[in-house]
Amino acid sequence: MRTIDWVDGAVEIIDQTALPDTERTLRLTTVDEVIDAIQRLAVRGAPAIGVAGALGVAIAARQYADEPDALTSAVLRLETARPTAVNLARGVRTAASALGGGPQAVLDAALALRDAEIASSAAMAERGADLVAVLCGSAPRLLTHCNTGGLATVTGGTALGVVAELHRRGGLGAVIASETRPLLQGARLTAWELGRLGIDYQVAVDGAGPFLMARGEVDAVILGADRVCANGDVINKVGSYAHALGARAAGIPFIVVAPETTVDEHTPSGETVEIEDRAADEVLHFGNARSAPPGARAINPAFDVTPYHLVTAIVTDTRVIEPNA
Ligand code: MRU
């Protein structure tokens, strides 16, 4: 299964808004369709939107072959479709740097990024599983947040790829998927992926995480990142910081798994990263039903910042970073 790919001259994605009930593929043929899919989270997860952005430039290079101003504007709109994950801007710039070579060169650059992300997932799974075994011993009970599996990358995944690799090795104790309010990437997507992998799991509300850690039911937290800053601050789905505080209080490791394409050496720390604010309705509704009284207002940061001093290790495709070493 590939979350995103280039098929017969268009971008094809698994529509993540429809999961877990409906498995459908969307075919994106214009820049506007790619941007809309990124913003609606039909394609989501830092590495996946990096590839989506790069393939979006490949579409732009064809769509606006004779309109240089429109092409420049399309590239900018793709780059800024979502602000927080560094992979998106990076993926768009990688593909755009090949624009001088024409549409085929842009597509080749985007496909090279896709292939690099697939290889990264495989490398992180091995390195991460080795590290978890060292830090937690055999049969660790892990808590993960948001969705970091093949859906968030191209295939494989980051943190969930490590979970899958531990399972393959026969060295996984248990997995708790934190539901990930408000859009339920954990309950909808991680649970769906774990089921397909044949891995037993439990879903917990986000607020239960730190308590389950305090009660001794979790051996480590393992999750992904949308941006890793130069000092080791980790930007990830809102709720990650609470799990990091819980892990520190319980004295268990907090492990981040992210490809080098998510590591942003140009951003010194988390303070300056733009955190995406999403629509109030995502918080004020549960599914299609309103859950707050009419007139209620909401604040909806999609990500948070976990300071480096709460991070035990960051596993990438090429190294293990220990921000506090
Ligand atoms: O808003 P989303 O669903 O795109 O957020 C995704 C996350 O926060 C993931 O944890 C992160 O991208 C790491 S995925 C490999």
TrEMBL record:
Keywords: Isomerase. Gene3D superfamilies: translation initiation factor eif-2b, domain 1, Translation initiation factor eif-2b, domain 2. InterPro entries: IF-2B-related (IPR000649), IF-M1Pi (IPR005251), IF_2B-like_C (IPR042529), Initiation_fac_2B_a/b/d (IPR011559), M1Pi_N (IPR027363), NagB/RpiA_transferase-like (IPR037171). SUPFAM superfamilies: NagB/RpiA/CoA transferase-like (SSF100950). One of its GO terms (molecular function) is isomerase activity. Belongs to the eIF-2B alpha/beta/delta subunits family. This is S-methyl-5-thioribose-1-phosphate isomerase. It comes from Luedemannella helvata.
